[in-house]
Amino acid sequence: MAKPVLYTYFRSSCSWRVRIALAWKGIEYESRFVNLVKDGGQQKKDEYAAINPMKQVPSLVMNESTMTQSVAMMEYLEEVHPEKPLLPEDPLERVKVREIVSVICGGIQPLQNLSVLQKIGDEGKMEWGKFWIDKGFHALEELLKRTAGKYCVGDKVTMADACLVPQVYNANRFKVDMKQFPTIARLNDELLKLDAFQESKMEDCPENLRS
Amino acid sequence: MAKPVLYTYFRSSCSWRVRIALAWKGIEYESRFVNLVKDGGQQKKDEYAAINPMKQVPSLVMNESTMTQSVAMMEYLEEVHPEKPLLPEDPLERVKVREIVSVICGGIQPLQNLSVLQKIGDEGKMEWGKFWIDKGFHALEELLKRTAGKYCVGDKVTMADACLVPQVYNANRFKVDMKQFPTIARLNDELLKLDAFQESKMEDCPENLRS
């Protein structure tokens, strides 16, 4: 079986989620770098759009299939590599994890996606991104107060954690005041101590591709 | 065991997804109506925000737990009511379904969420909503050409279908030209012939709550 190939960009929080999941499960893969800003955006080239019609990273080629959408990939990895799970066993606990995943991946991140920021324009994009992360984090902080232990849901690392850390990275880029969100900040600090989160950071990206 | 309670609003496409899943699986439930526009938005009241910190519908109270986020709910319903499945068995087929779910729920719908439209303002909101649905549907059409049979993925109804039909309803509200998307339009027509999709439409909402 060929090694999985991940199309990724160092600054893409959606790509980082999948890099964390792959690292957590110890799955070796090959990275292909798609620079979202160089050449007007390499993701918009026909060659890449044929792989991913949304013209976004990440894409994952694995077991002779091409997958897009980070949440779908994490669920797939969980099903075919259940060792070192990223979901609890109890359905009522699983729903808590997926709730946090959805708040981040469906409620917060889509509003500071590159294409949205480009539509908003250079002048307003920092305020826009900050506004939505700030609003989303107020809700997420409330949710996490109810579910968190050492990590987002109890004391085991889950998909929710793989989504949280990249979102906090985005929050810092948009200069969100993290003092407002003590639970989120604590979880982020705790998670960044783990190898899977450290290894999957930007270090996978050659210096000349960092825009 | 008490009957599940769904907090819902007739025009919320996210709520409709869950109504479809519940109807498909034949799960009886009680509806509580949260009018997103009346009284400045009933979802913003403290009483409801305590249930759902994102101040959005739907919320589902089931098995003594309160759940938010439609995708998390559908995954939960699938796990605890696997009869009349909404996911295929093969992981590579499941990933196709979840990919479409994510494109809609993480890529398209979040950009025409009520709070986003309110931020954009009355003057620009129709153009904004139409722009993002149009853009998203171009990608979705490509994806569906690869996966669709009678329904979104092959010939069985899945979560992807439960997300598609409410999104087409939104597209029509924003006057998106559906002639551009023959696959999406065909699937929508086919799905609307099914009882679970018909029953879960707006008919669950008393006339006086339709804004």
Describe this structure in words.
The structure is a homodimer of 211-residue chains. The first copy, chain A, is 51% helix and 8% strand. Chain A is globular, with a radius of gyration of 17 Å. Chain A has nine helices and four strands, in the order E-H-E-H-E-E-H-H-H-H-H-H-H. Chain A is an alpha+beta fold. A four-stranded mixed β-sheet of chain A has the order 2-1-3-4, covered by helices on one side. The longest helix of chain A has 23 residues, at 125-147. The first copy, chain A, folds into two domains: 5-83, Glutaredoxin; 91-196, Glutathione S-transferase Yfyf (Class Pi), Chain A, domain 2 (Up-down Bundle). The A-B interface holds A 53-56, 63, 65, 67-73, 75-76, 79-80, 91-92, 94-95, 98-99, 101-103, 105-107, 109-111, 115-116, 119, 131, 135-136, 138-140, 142-143 and B 53-56, 63, 65, 67-73, 75-76, 79-80, 91-92, 94-95, 98-99, 101-103, 105-107, 109-111, 115-116, 119, 131, 135-136, 138-140, 142-143. Chains A, B: One of its GO terms (molecular function) is glutathione transferase activity. Chains A, B: Residues 2-85 form the GST N-terminal domain. Chains A, B: Residues 90-211 form the GST C-terminal domain.
